[in-house]
Amino acid sequence: MKYLAFATGMMAATAAVAETPVLTVYTYDSFVSDWGPGPAVEAAFEETCGCDLKLVGAGDGAALLARLKLEGARSDADVVLGLDTSLTGAAAATGLFAPHGQTVTTDVPNPFGEAGSWDDANFLPYDWGYFAFVYDTTKLENAPASFEELAASDVKIVIQDPRSSTPGLGLLLWVKEQYGDGAAAMWEGLADNVVTVTKGWSEAYGLFLEGEADMVLSYTTSPAYHIIAEEDQSKAAAAFPSHYMQIEVAGKLAGTDQPELADQFLSFMVSDGFQSIIPTTNWMYPAFTPAAGVPDAFAAPIAPEQARLIATDKVQAIRDEALAEWLGALSQ
Amino acid sequence: MAGRAVAVRRWPGIGAAALVAALVLGTLLAVALRAEAGRGLGPSDWAAIRFTLVQSVLSAAISVALAIPVARALSRRRFFGRRVLITLLGAPFILPVIVAVLGLLAVFGRSGILNEALRWLGLPEVQVYGLHGVVLAHVFFNLPLATRLILQGWQQVPAERFRLAAQLGFGPREMWRVIEAPMLLRVVPPAAAVIFAICLSSFAVALTLGGGPKATTVELAIYQAFRFDFDLGRAALLSCVQLVLVGIAALVALKLSGNESFGAGLDRAVRRWDSAGLGRISLDSAVIALAVLFLLLPMSLVVIDGVLGIAKMPAQVWKAAGVSVVVSLGSTALMLAFALPIAIAAAGKSSWLEAIGLFGIASSPLVIGTGLFIVIYPIADPFDFAFPVTALVNAIMALPFALRILVGPTRDVVQGYGRLSLSLGLTGRQWLRIVYLPRMRAPLGFACGLTAALSMGDLGVIALFADPETATLPLQMYRLMGSYRMEAASGAALLLLVLSFGLFWLFDRGGRGHADS
Question: In this complex, do B486 and A199 lie within 8 Å of one another by their Cβ atoms?
Fold first, then answer.
């Protein structure tokens, strides 16, 4: 009888679990790890939603989009979190996303329109950062303050391949946006500064920490990690006249079977509950500064007017041309 | 040819090879069928194919060329710690790529030990990045494997041959002409083909040490087609190119290497009468010392780095380690299920079967993983299959190494004992139990150890299938690196090294038992 009671209890419990709606969110790998924002975000959202938030990690932003394209309209995903503004054009073109229907005022710098306005109908931002070259202040004095100074110097940098890495693509677009037709010449000038090109951010940052290069392409927020998590003040981001932005966004899928929950999640995402988790777990600026503010280590080295970005609908065409120039200049 | 006297059937081997081919080609087809109109192969793809070919040929040739003297020295010398050393030399091969690259750069990089020493001596620095860097890294990875494979060739020469050679008063030249050269001809071409196949699908190593996009390999072009252009057709096409190249390499290797074995011996302990003389002793010692320095210096730097990080590892890492051990034992079992029947069939008339095994390592993990995803997705949730799929793909990837280890000794057993077995009426399972398996302990142990270790360290396809709860140790290590936690990642890398190496050691050691080989 005891076993029967136990079995009945188990079945009841399973039934209860089955009734809890599940919201599936596809995101990148580092979001879901123990030390990323995932666990805290999951706990905070599940407190109020009466649901089970299932975070699924799939490589990085570009792998995430490829994954969605493979799965198509049948995808189990309700929300995709972790695309950036160089991917949203291609993502919207798949027709897999539904409008979020929200009007928000964001703290992300807006190089195109009024400060605070956000006009992407499909995607909402959750964090952002500036690409920048990070260096060790104890080893490199007089860090170059522009691409021209960098090209003229013998400072060695390690960068990521734009074909396999998001920051690598960011740098490609940064140079292209800033120099236009002169981008190829700029890359030729930079070619002798590039120690090597890596598959992804981790390899490049690892090489930099091992002392293989004086600077590494990363984010202006990278030093904040070293200051806060390691109490190491030696890393700094070189301030250039302008910096290319990466804005990370999330969107609801048109084929979702949980549209209300998905909307609820997106609203939660732009609220303090989510935004206050971001800085010290994802090491980016929150898109909506929480009431408590951000840690001092996050002080942006540049003013919002210096932010650069290529409009999402133009990225596709520009990146192919920029890639050809990059390959030509660095393959010699 | 003596291959006819086989006491076992060939069809299980042919069936297993067909399964492997179906998996590799089927996933490729799945990707190709899913493709929308793409742009085909462009000039940059052809440049990638050329570079891939050049670096793979160079890496394979130099790896085996350097492995011959090392294996020869190890086969001629008996010294304290020799067996430990032979096992330790296998370590670079089983390390995750990125860890090995960081270790290598700690020695050869801009601020590595070598350049520090040159600076101190007032000499010009050496630049590691370039084609030579790519080859250096691939030799670092593959020299141990080549050495083991060639050493195995020496070990297969029956003790009686050396005894006879000594009685006949063979000098080094006769020794080379009558025993060593024919043995090497049999062992070296297939070993080179396996290494060529591994280097063919290299990507992160080639790019990082190649110093930039001129070191673009086919695998990187596949990656680009997949995630930058989402041109699945081109990804499949490029993967076909990899398979064709490896097919050609396998054909060349088969053509070059003879099938004849040295015949059976009486399993006497090998004694070498040709190893005396101060010149030979010092030459062998120098060769061994250089190999140890080249292979173990970067490894020890990885270990030192890792010790500091162990304490900073989050709990997830330990869980992932458990997952990895289970997956790796699973792939070892799967590998045996494929490799044993193929090796037995390939030892007879169907030596071309071994070539099928090479397809597994040459094909892009990204294409196999994506193909499996496309196949599984309509029927089931791919996440539910993360472990079996990873174990299967890792087993297929390890298959060529396992076959290379198993086919030679299997051929010796089949050719040396086939007739006797048949006349005694020993066939099928009985033959396996009484004749085959006991004689195959050492190569089986080595093959299992290598598979287990490779499967531990390989990122494989798990990255395409994993959800947060089902990460393997290499994936967890990459995630740590991806979020600035480089020290914890070094700790995880050390744990990975210890576990892979432990598994390798257990199998390899268990296989060799008490035999002094």
Answer: no
Answer whether A207 touches B (CB < 8 Å): yes
Contacts of B377 in chain A (CB under 8 A): 70-71, 74
**Which chain A residues in 167-206 lie under 8 Å from chain B, judged by CB atoms?**
191, 194-203, 205-206
- Give the burial class of B79: count Cβ atoms within 10 A of its Cβ; 0-12 exposed, 13-18 middle, 19 or more buried: exposed
Domain architecture of chain A: domains with CATH: 2-128+246-298 (3.40.190.10), 130-244+304-330 (3.40.190.10)
Helices within A136-211 (DSSP H only):
147-152, 166-179, 183-190, 201-209
* Residue-by-residue DSSP string for B82-113: HHHHHHHTTHHHHS-HHHHHHHHHHHHSTTSH
C-alpha closest to that of B390 among B328, B336, B435? B328
Residue B2 CA to chain centroid, in angstroms?
29
Quick: pLDDT tens for A15-53: 445 578 999 999 988 888 888 899 999 999 999 988 999
pTM over 0.90? The answer is: no
Q: Which CATH number fits domain B2-512: 1.10.3720.10, 3.60.21.10, 3.30.43.10, 3.40.190.10?
A: 1.10.3720.10
Indicate yes or no: CB of A207 within 8 angstroms of CB of B466: no
Q: Which residues of B touch A52 (CB under 8 A)?
A: none
B44 touches chain A (CB under 8 A): yes
Which ipTM was obtained for this model? 0.84
How would you class B74 by CB atoms within 10 Å of its CB: exposed for 0-12, middle for 13-18, buried for 19 or more? buried
